[in-house]
Structure formats: C-alpha cells, structure tokens
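Data follows
____________
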Amino acid sequence: MTSGLPNQEKARIRQAHAEGRIDRTALLESESQSYHDAGTCTFYGTANSNQMLMEIMGLHLPGSAFVNPNTALREALTRAAAQRAAQLWAHGNDYRPLSQIVDERAIVNAIVGLLATGGSTNHTIHLVAMARAAGIIIDWDDFSALSAAVPLIARVYPNGSADINHFHAAGGTAFVIRELLGAGLLHADVRTVNGTDLHAYTQEPWLDAGKLSWRDGPHRAAIFRSCVRWADPFSADGGLKLLRGNLAAR
C-alpha cells in the first residue's frame, strides 16, 4: 500500500496512548491514517519479507515485489506474470516446474536475502518448511552460520525509520541483489521464472510509452539511507545467532 502516517509519528502517538496522554479515539485515528489503502502493509514484516524472498529466489518477475496495487505499472506486471505463467506450465512453450527453480542455491539465496535486509524472523520457520517441501534440509545452524558472513545492508521499519515504499524508491530489491552479487554472496547461476539467471533481478520494471520494460536498477541507493553498499554496511553480520544452553529453562 502507499505510505500513510510516518512511522515515527505513529510510534509517538502509540507511546502517548500507552502513557494515558491521548484517548483511544486519537489512537484509532492514527492507525487509520497509517493503514488505509490496498496492498500489504508498509512495514517490513512477514508479508513484505516474503515478497523479497520470492523475488530473490527467482519466483517473481524482476522488480515486482513492492510495486503498489492500483497503478499502471502493477497492472502491467500482473498481465506479464499471467502470460509468463502460461508459458511455464506443462503445455506452455517453456516448461519450468517449481522443482527446477527451488533448489539448494535458491534456498541459500533466500536466507542471504533475509539476513541482508533484516527481514522477519518468522522466516527462520517458514524457509525451513519451504526447503523441506523441496526435499532440502536446513536448520537454524545454517541461518546462524550464514548470518556471520552476511552484512546488513537494509534497514526498513521496524528495523529502521524508512517504510517499504521508501526502500523500494531507494533501489529496493534490485539494489540489494546487485550488491550481494557483487560481494559474491548470492548464487547467480540459478533458474528463475524469468528465464534468465539472477543478474536479471538487478533490473527494475518501468513503463516505456505505456509498454512494460526493464532497465538497470540504481547502482547507488538514496532516500532515507534505507539501503547501503555491502562494503559499508549497517552491521557486519545479519543479526541472527543461534544460542544454546539452559537459559530457556530458568
């Protein structure tokens, strides 16, 4: 959805309500101003993290994860996705079953993308299940090991002040994938629904005289510093670490 009330203002009003300084009516008005349009919410929770994962796994058309609904670009991407799906099924001209796309490389790319963007920790469960459905076994040790090697290069609310629209405008998935490929942290040689390898996902969609096309995504991020170069990250690691011991029992 499009951006509503800024996250910092929303947090201020929630805090004021918790302290009894404003009433419930004012709180609900704030919430209404924050979430008032079609599409997934603007913070980087489970839904938007999953959008990023589908793109970095090559299961979306490039750059389509965070294009808002009810826009000309979204409608063009929806038509293109439907046409591509018809080509990919068994009676199409480019049969490409899911089992040929979701392999070990795609799963590693998904974990790396999650860590690099500070995505929802719910996916430490969801990705394990997705991998298992593909016949691939991963566990939290894999998340922890990769986290030690993957820098945090995006900060999106609640992990930063920018919302998902700011992140998308700053370069979004195209910028993140370009940076991670440049750092040697992603498998480029994967199969995707786009029919190309992962380098195609460093491009962004746009309407060229009303016709859907793709162009190079930005090489330098901007706006709210929601994403940065891998060589100058927000954090040297992905922020997830598997802890062991008896702490939970006490």
Remarks:
- The two ends are 43 Å apart (CA to CA).
- The mean pLDDT is 91.
